[in-house]
Predict the structure.
Amino acid sequence: MRRFMTVVLGILALCSVLSDAAQAMDYPWCVASGSGFEDCSYTTFAQCQAAASGTGSCYPNPRAGQR
């Protein structure tokens, strides 16, 4: 039982670290759709425009560069 709990706690710690790393990557461009969906995972304006084509609009990520 002790080994099981150690493994579970290790997995939870790893998930926490990976989650923090993912949040730390704030890309410079976001797509917003009319339905309220927001995706800030674009490194270039061209990528953002391609993703937003017909469904939303691009805007600069206000969180980019603040970390």
Notes: The first helix runs from residue 2 to 24. Residues 36 and 66 are 23 Å apart (CA to CA). The longest strand covers residues 29-33.
